[in-house]
Amino acid sequence: MKEQNICIFGDSIVWGAFDPECGGWANRVRNYFEQNNYEAYFSSMGICGDTTTNLLERFEREAKARGGNIIIFAIGINDARYFRSKDNPELSLERFRGNIEELYLRAARFAEKIVFVGLTNVDDSKTMPGEWDGITFYDNEVIKQYDAAIRTFCKEKNVPFINVFGLLSETDFIGDGLHPSSLGHKKIFEKVKDFLLEHGIIENIVAGW
Question: pTM of the entire structure?
Fold first, then answer.
């Protein structure tokens, strides 16, 4: 059996921002499988502020260096942000769709399994605009369109998709309304972990030590 090398790519939410308890949902997934003695090796590669364009620049180099044969993408909420007006998005929906497809095509060259995690909702009473600069907007109406683009692509290509939009309530965020708190990360972890198990993404092979 080939080693299960799981690479999780994304932004600050994958990185684990603002989860001092366990270091984010991706790290919680790793901890779960390690604590249950699965023979699976995880690399969490989230970078704060990353968009799909940023990820495309680093993806192949980082995934190949780690021997990633199971790739999990959780990226796109920063693509969906806009500045002052919906007419000034970080990345147009059309370009976003193209980037999602390109990420998939590059991953498919060497990965045996590919999974996309959908976008989280936000508390947009605090993110329209964000208090950190007053010009950057994270709008659930817009985020939902980008999330739907990922979902549609996955359906067309028969790629596993984990829906997390609407999973978080207002009490699951830190004060900025954008980043999940430890409780929010725990909810995402549970959803992702259950999906990976139920769909056999991580095989039930127990290490022999």
Answer: 0.96
For residue 11, the SS3 value is coil
The Cα–Cα gap between 12 and 134 comes to 20
Number of Cβ within 10 Å of residue 133's Cβ equals 8
In tens, the pLDDT along 83-140 reads: 999 999 999 999 999 999 999 999 999 999 999 999 999 999 999 999 999 999 999 9
* CA-angle at 131, arms to 126 and 135, nearest 5°: 105
Which one of 3.40.50.150, 3.40.50.1110, 3.30.505.10, 3.40.50.1820 gives the CATH number of domain 4-198? 3.40.50.1110
pLDDT digit string (tens) for 42-54? 999 999 999 999 9
Q: Where are the beta strands (DSSP E) in the chain?
A: 4-10, 40-46, 70-74, 82-83, 85-89, 113-117, 136-137, 161-162
